[in-house]
Amino acid sequence: AQKVTQAQTEISVVEKEDVTLDCVYETRDTTYYLFWYKQPPSGELVFLIRRNSFDEQNEISGRYSWNFQKSTSSFNFTITASQVVDSAVYFCALSGTDSNYQLIWGAGTKLIIKP
Amino acid sequence: GAVVSQHPSWVICKSGTSVKIECRSLDFQATTMFWYRQFPKQSLMLMATSNEGSKATYEQGVEKDKFLINHASLTLSTLTVTSAHPEDSSFYICSARAGLAMRYEQYFGPGTRLTVT
User: Fold this and answer.
1) Interface contact A96, partner B, CB < 8 A
2) Distance from CA of B35 to the nearest CA of A (A)
3) How many Cβ atoms are within 10 Å of B97's Cβ, its own excluded?
4) What CA–CA distance (Å, rounded) separates B36 from A39?
């Protein structure tokens, strides 16, 4: 069975601090995809990244970076120099290549950035 | 980029009435669309998967007679909440899955907030 665990329910940091959101996944598939989405208070999901299981290179996009480690089945997300606008709920998700590429969602981590 | 719209963005209805939510892929064809429900402070829960031209596949625990899904074309899927009750109040999100040329990416609509009074 596939599963995504985001153990951090809520994280609160002061602006400009770095923060890492954890994501641990379980799957028996050899080919799979991992995602991060941001959900601000408006509710609309914002796609952040998609990573396939064969690409373990870390990714950096501005203040955002992702650390994919198959050995520990983790796909962690770090925000550097956090800003108030980063406050949102962040979801990690997993999909295989069958079942219509159905997404398996983590519970989400609510990130609060205090000014 | 690929855009998915939902209409309405919010709706308030009285208990016992039916509400229809539309999900459209505006600039691509989607053979598969997903419907999710999200309660406050919770994750997304998949309700059903619909493939164009065929019956939707509902997740366990989702009443197919209550949540009617129609996927009549490659760009439109509708979710009808029949005989709505206050417990159906939730945030409903659709997503449309593109084909091979777009790497089977899923694109999400902005969501519909349903309040049943």
Assistant:
1) no
2) 11
3) 23
4) 14
How far is the C-alpha of A58 from the C-alpha of A67, rounded, in Å? 5
DSSP string, A34-90: EEEEEE-TT---EEEEEEETT----EEETTEEEEEEGGGTEEEEEESS--GGG-EEE
Instruction: Determine contact: A47 vs chain B, CB below 8 A.
Output: yes
Give the phi and the psi of residue B96 in degrees, each rounded to 5: -120, 130
Chain A residue with the nearest C-alpha to that of B43: A107
| pLDDT tens for the 115 residues of chain A, in order | 899 999 999 999 999 999 999 999 999 999 999 999 999 999 999 999 999 999 888 899 999 999 999 999 999 999 999 999 999 999 999 998 776 788 999 999 999 999 9
